[in-house]
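FAQ: What does the model actually see?

It sees only this:
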Amino acid sequence: MVTAAKHTANRKKGKEMRKRILTAAACVAFAIGVGQAQELKCTVEVNSSKIEGSSKSVFETLKQSLTDYMNETKFTNLTFSPVEKIECRLYLTVGEYENDRIKGDLQVQLSRPVYNSTYTTTLLNFKDTRVEFDYREGDPLVFNESQSENNLTAILDYYAYLFLALDSDSFSPMGGQPFFDKMASIVQQAQSSGEIGWKAFEDNKNRSGVLSTYTDSNTSGIRQMNYDYYRKGLDEMVTSPDKGRSVITNSLKEIQTVYKNAPMSVALSIFRDAKLDEIVNIYSKAPQSEREEVYELLEPIYPADHDRLEKIKNPDN
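And it is asked to produce this:
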């Protein structure tokens, strides 16, 4: 039985999703500039448990600075209402802190609502293991549209635009292109800084490698896959489960293409970390033939995840 409150919540969710789709489509038509309302709803955590010492105020200050920067900066010229803001998370684990230099890793997560439902799906769950920056307690973080002020703001800008790009792609085919262009500019500028995490041949899973996942011809098909998976697949499953799931099944063939073209691409681990558990749930009520098709597609790509994938073929085991 649907309560009046739940019915109202679902209507609000549907209205929000329609506006998000229109907003994403507008990304293609407008140049990136000074915004009218902040786009992100970002939760920030800073874990400094590895750092010895009684004074941890610098990390509390850093957490607040990161929170303010991500949530109060206007990264685009698009207008987002409070319910439309993109939900994301930054989890910084500090491994070293000496002479105002912070080294650690950054877990970044991005989610979006599924149309006409209370379900939220994960678009990105990625750990950046090459995070280093200088920070003195109280240092202001200043957004500069044309050039990042320092390595910390460069990292924050990069992930803000990645969130915008992936969210937009999930609502409109290639709708995130303006934001991928912005990321490319940040990477190009940062590569001359000497900071780690940006160079093209340093690591295929660094920030340059992640950008290449969505821009190189061998792997960029994953962007169309994301639109099909989310907008034409998950969003449709609420009203037509079989139709939506069929689209998802077909979209997953792009992962196979990426694996054939670039078997070491970070695209494969990005997809695994964000989607495998969800895929198990999606196919729990699918016909046996469909479950086996998806299992046969994914198992050669992710042999280390055999136990999880086995649940696709045999959900009752």
